[in-house]
């Protein structure tokens, strides 16, 4: 799984460098799909449950599963990019949220707290802990900072399938849930709203937005639990 995960990390990082006012998410989709092809890999999302694109592009109040659009991004927007690769029968999955041009200090804080919550969750992803130790670490940080955790979508096990058991909610009671063991691989992915946690799916059947129009951020890593800790497979470590 290191191979597809590393590809996801590389491609997301190269996409993040392209995010600037004026670019469209259709252009980002084209880059993502050609970078997968160049690596002889398959973009995991395209065709998954009939999802139409390789890259999920979710600006501003879109939470997840946004589709590439021809509307140019503008300064002050944020953009969540979620990307998955299938290579040699194994999946990798990760997401980032990046600012477009200059964003307000409030919005910067939302991105920072969401990424921090992911890293705090990951810190609990060690052998012997329980699954919802991860969930609680995410939830408590987010709520202490005044934001809310999306409940209708969750992280997941990952491996030979994109979505495997167990589901990994971003809220929960510490000390409960399945015991974590070496060899488990989890996609941990907090989706965090500036205001209410309530979300809805648009008429297109995919795009998830906040009900109140508040911004939403999403960070995700694929994490392997090892004998003595964990390995974040979708992080570029030699940077
Ligand atoms: N990264 C998303 C997830 O973890 C994948 C998007 S689902 C798809 O579930 F249908 F768009 F592929
Ligand atoms: Co995922």
Could you characterize what this model shows?
With 239 residues, the protein is α+β, with helices and mostly antiparallel strands. It has a single domain, classed as Alpha-Beta Complex (Creatine Amidinohydrolase), CATH 3.90.230.10. Helices cover 27% and strands 28% of the residues. It is built from four helices and 15 strands. It has helices at 2-18, 25-38, 105-123, 131-144, and strands at residues 42-43, 55-59, 62-64, 78-87, 90-99, 148-149, 155-157, 164-168, 185-188, 191-193, 199-201, 208-210, 216-218, 221-226, 229-232. A five-stranded antiparallel β-sheet has the order 8-7-9-14-15. Strand 11 (199-201) and strand 12 (208-210) form a beta hairpin. The longest helix is centred in the middle third of the chain and has 19 residues, at 105-123. It is globular and about 50 Å long. The two termini are 20 Å apart. Bound molecules: 2-amino-4-trifluoromethylsulfanyl-butyric acid (MF3) and cobalt (II) ion.
Give me a quick take on this structure.
With 239 residues, the protein is an alpha+beta fold. Helix content is 27%, strand content 28%. It has helices at 2-18, 25-38, 105-123, 131-144, and strands at residues 42-43, 55-59, 62-64, 78-87, 90-99, 148-149, 155-157, 164-168, 185-188, 191-193, 199-201, 208-210, 216-218, 221-226, 229-232.
